């Protein structure tokens, strides 16, 4: 497994930790996988503050996916760069088909823990090769989850993914998180992914430049740390968490965009 693939253990650890605490996210699959995989993460990657942040990000993606499925009952859900995430089990609104996509090493591990069925499938897909999106299932409407992916792709590759989705599906709903250019520069000094050997990341300052000329349009920006989730922390934890992961400085580093076509 390469360095980028290893980054999946950082959010997995965070989801497992908060699930054990009974806050933010109920994810017994993360608890089980973390225990069995026992990947040795260290340093900032084991920070409880980062665990809370990763879990809140995941919960925002979960809630958004659930709300989109309630609006688009016949939609295909595509989770590109799914890692070892169990979102297909956490989201309760039924869907006609859900496809989790990632690189071969990741899908191989996933198949130890998750079983395919009539509505749930796993497939190998390299997001740096957007032409592979053409092999995904056909559908009129696609709900696309791009969580923790864009920062490992160049701006051109991100555009390639969006362009391929734009071409394949008539209606698309996308949620994606991105580092800014400032965030990439700051990450050289304190990003947890450095602990697993990742040294090259990419940022997006203007999402409009990425989608220029496509049918895809910007809808709105989402918060990684909704007040309702922050309230699940203890009062003292809330105070420190807000200093680290909320406010204008955090937004200068990290953003979450909803797009549609």
Automatic annotation (TrEMBL):
GO molecular function: methyltransferase activity
Protein name in UniProt: Polyketide synthesis methyltransferase
Alphabetized InterPro entries for the sequence: Ppm1/Ppm2/Tcmp, SAM-dependent_MTases_sf, TcmP-like
Keywords noted in UniProt: Methyltransferase, Transferase
PANTHER family given in the database record: S-ADENOSYL-L-METHIONINE-DEPENDENT METHYLTRANSFERASE YKTD-RELATED (PTHR43619), S-ADENOSYL-L-METHIONINE-DEPENDENT METHYLTRANSFERASES SUPERFAMILY PROTEIN (PTHR43619:SF2)
Lineage: Bacteria, Bacillati, Bacillota, Clostridia, Lachnospirales
GO BP: any one term: methylation
Domain of life: Bacteria
């Amino acid at each position: 497994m390469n360095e980028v693939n290893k980054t999946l253990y950082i959010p997995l650890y965070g989801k497992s930790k908060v699930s054990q605490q009974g806050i933010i996210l109920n994810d017994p699959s993360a608890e089980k996988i973390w225990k069995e995989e026992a990947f040795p993460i260290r340093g900032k990657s084991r920070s409880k503050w980062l665990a809370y942040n990763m879990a809140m990000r995941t919960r925002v993606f979960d809630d958004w996916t659930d709300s989109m499925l309630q609006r688009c009952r016949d939609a295909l859900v595509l989770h590109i760069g799914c890692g070892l995430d169990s979102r297909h089990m956490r989201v309760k609104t039924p869907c006609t088909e859900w496809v989790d996509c990632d690189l071969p090493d990741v899908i191989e591990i996933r198949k130890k823990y998750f079983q395919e069925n009539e509505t749930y499938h796993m497939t190998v897909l390299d997001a740096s090769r957007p032409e592979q999106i053409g092999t995904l299932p056909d559908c009129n409407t696609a709900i696309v989850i791009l969580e923790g992916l864009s920062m490992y792709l160049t701006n051109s590759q991100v555009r390639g993914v969006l362009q391929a989705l734009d071409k394949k599906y008539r209606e698309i709903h996308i949620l994606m998180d991105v580092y800014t250019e400032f965030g990439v520069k700051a990450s050289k000094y304190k990003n947890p992914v450095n602990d697993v050997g990742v040294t090259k990341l990419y940022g997006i300052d203007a999402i409009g430049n990425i989608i220029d000329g496509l049918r895809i349009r910007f809808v709105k920006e989402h918060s990684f740390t909704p007040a309702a989730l922050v309230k699940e922390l203890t009062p003292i934890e809330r105070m420190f968490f807000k200093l680290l992961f909320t406010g204008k400085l955090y937004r200068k580093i990290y953003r979450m965009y909803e797009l549609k076509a």
